[in-house]
Structure to design on (229 residues):
């Protein structure tokens, strides 16, 4: 019986990958400069969503922001999630770093079927989560760093009582609307190959995010970090 259950579980995982694979393959062909441009557009859309935007207090206090356009989720009971985007951190002077490419992966279990894409925005309230990327391993959201659904309300009393107990707050757009979403269990990792390709030579996460020492930043990269608060 256990063998049968294991076989069924394996088949369901394969089915989930089969659902997501065509979309994922298309996503990997997107040029890096277009990925940065898409991330800028997603961030602008989050801020301009009426009554559903991130609070001003969160924007002022966050230390790093990651934007991952078109995260792909494929599932048939057992699901998988894939996405890539860019991340930036600001220094003590409030200057945002050149973008660092990151990958998001993760799984899910539940009564689900089908495939969908959504845009994700992650706000890091401290450098701890971002510095975990320096180890070269994937950072488990909700594991090494706490993660929670992002609150809403740009101004007023709703933003003055926020305590920001989590290290990362996340927002996801699905079916045209942003909503706070906890993606505990997902894993975030720096994409060093993408960084080397984008900047023309190998560049470390430390150099990009914390030392702000990078080769010449392409135009769309400058546009992305200028869009941040």
């Amino acid at each position: 019986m256990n063998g049968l259950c294991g076989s069924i579980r394996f088949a369901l995982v394969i089915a989930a990958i089969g659902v997501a694979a065509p979309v994922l393959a298309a996503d990997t062909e997107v040029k890096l400069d277009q990925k940065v441009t898409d991330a800028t557009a997603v961030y602008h859309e989050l801020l301009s969503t009426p009554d559903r935007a991130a609070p001003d207090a969160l924007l002022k206090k966050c230390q790093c922001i990651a934007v991952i356009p078109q995260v792909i989720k494929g599932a048939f009971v057992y699901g998988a999630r894939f996405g890539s985007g860019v991340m930036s951190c600001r220094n003590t002077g409030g200057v945002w770093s050149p973008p660092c490419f990151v990958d998001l992966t993760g799984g899910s279990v539940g009564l689900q079927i089908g495939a969908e894409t959504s845009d994700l925005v992650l706000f890091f309230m401290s450098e701890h989560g971002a510095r975990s990327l320096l180890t070269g391993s994937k950072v488990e959201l909700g594991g090494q760093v706490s993660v929670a659904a992002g609150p809403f309300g740009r101004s007023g009393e709703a933003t003055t009582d926020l305590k920001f107990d989590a290290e990362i707050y996340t927002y996801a757009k699905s079916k045209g609307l942003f909503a706070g979403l906890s993606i505990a269990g997902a894993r975030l990792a720096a994409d060093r190959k993408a960084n080397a390709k984008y900047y023309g030579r190998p560049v470390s996460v430390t150099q990009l995010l914390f030392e702000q020492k990078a080769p010449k930043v392409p135009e769309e990269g400058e546009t992305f970090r200028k869009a941040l608060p």
About this structure: Strands lie at 64-89, 100-124, 139-140, 147-149, 168-174, 177-180, 187-190. The longest helix spans residues 2-28.
